[in-house]
């Protein structure tokens, strides 16, 4: 009788877990759609949107929801994705600083893709990364927060070809790029999370499987952008 009870109880547990996960995904999606709706004036020129948010501003654990516009409405592209952000969470709007370990809050264009691969199934502009490729994070350099190939006088920079696969797919989040303001943060990328927990120095990271799907989906003609920050901040409108 105990074996039978246990056998009957297992499907109930599994069903409960599935329903709970479904409810969780639904709430994450609803929140992302609310964020999009409450920032619609700043998003009206985009047809593809990545919504990245957390619930506690200082937490590096976040979620990503990909949305696309259909008949003037935002609809969900796929299930929510677990994401990592800066190890110290999100900086308040306009308060990101170099070296603070926080991801910036705001709405940013998605730019060029740097990749270890020679060919990528994507419509995005991309280039294969070499050991000569760098992104300057020295606030005192004239090349601060820009890409450089070859020699640089900068005292600090990010190598874009790493020993790990973190930058195997490294998409530029165009934060502090036009204009570049010294000391306001640099090298903000959308890249791979290698192992959990996915925390970064200020970037957004997801796993490779989902990254490939997103890179394949993004289309520069659709003006893809990312909105990122704490949920309470984003839902109030930027």
Give a quick set of tags describing it.
238 residues, alpha+beta, ten-stranded mixed beta sheet, 4 helices, 13 strands, 23% helix, 28% strand, disordered N terminus
The helix-strand sequence is HHEEEEEEEEEEEEHEH
- Give the helix level as a range of percent: 10-25%
Main beta-sheet annotation = 10 strands, mixed
- State the helix count: 4
How many extended strands? 13
Any idea what the shape is?
Answer: globular
Tell me the structural class.
alpha+beta
First-to-last CA distance: 60 Å
Name the poorly predicted regions.
1-10, 16-20
Mean pLDDT figure = 92
Protein name: L,D-transpeptidase
InterPro entries: LD_TPept_cat_dom (IPR005490)
Domain L,D-TPase catalytic: 72-227
Detailed description of the structure:
Residues 72-227 form the L,D-TPase catalytic domain. InterPro entries: LD_TPept_cat_dom. It comes from Flavobacterium zhoui. It is globular and about 50 Å long. Strands 1, 2, 3, 4, 5, 6, 10, 11, 12 and 13 form a 10-stranded mixed sheet that branches. Strands 8-7-9 form a 3-stranded antiparallel sheet, with no helix packed on it. Mean pLDDT is 92; it is low at 1-10 and 16-20. It has 238 residues and is α+β, with helices and mostly antiparallel strands. Strand 2 (61-70) and strand 3 form a beta hairpin. It has helices at residues 2-38, 40-43, 208-217, 231-234, and strands spanning 48-54, 61-70, 73-76, 81-84, 106-115, 126-128, 133-136, 147-149, 157-159, 169-173, 189-192, 204-206, 225-230. The chain is built from 4 helices and 13 strands.
């Amino acid at each position: 009788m105990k074996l039978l009870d246990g056998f009957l109880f297992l499907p109930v547990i599994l069903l409960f877990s599935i329903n709970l996960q479904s409810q969780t995904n639904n709430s994450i999606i609803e929140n992302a759609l609310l964020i999009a709706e409450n920032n619609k004036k700043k998003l009206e020129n985009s047809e593809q949107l990545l919504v990245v948010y957390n619930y506690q501003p200082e937490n590096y654990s976040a979620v990503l929801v990909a949305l696309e516009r259909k008949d003037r409405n935002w609809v969900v592209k796929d299930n929510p994705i677990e994401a990592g952000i800066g190890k110290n969470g999100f900086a308040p709007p306009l308060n990101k600083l170099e070296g603070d370990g926080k991801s910036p809050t705001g709405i940013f264009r998605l730019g060029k893709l740097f990749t270890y691969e020679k060919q990528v199934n994507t419509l995005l502009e991309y280039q294969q990364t070499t050991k000569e490729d760098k992104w300057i994070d020295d606030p005192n350099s004239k090349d601060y927060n820009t890409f450089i190939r070859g020699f640089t006088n900068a005292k600090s920079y990010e190598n874009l070809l790493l020993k790990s696969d973190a930058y195997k797919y490294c998409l530029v989040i165009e934060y502090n790029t036009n204009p570049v303001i010294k000391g306001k943060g640099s090298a903000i990328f959308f890249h791979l999370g290698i192992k959990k927990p996915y925390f970064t120095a200020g970037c957004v990271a997801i796993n490779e499987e989902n990254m490939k799907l997103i890179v394949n989906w993004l289309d520069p003609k659709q003006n893809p952008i990312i909105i990122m920050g704490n949920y309470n901040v984003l839902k109030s409108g930027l």
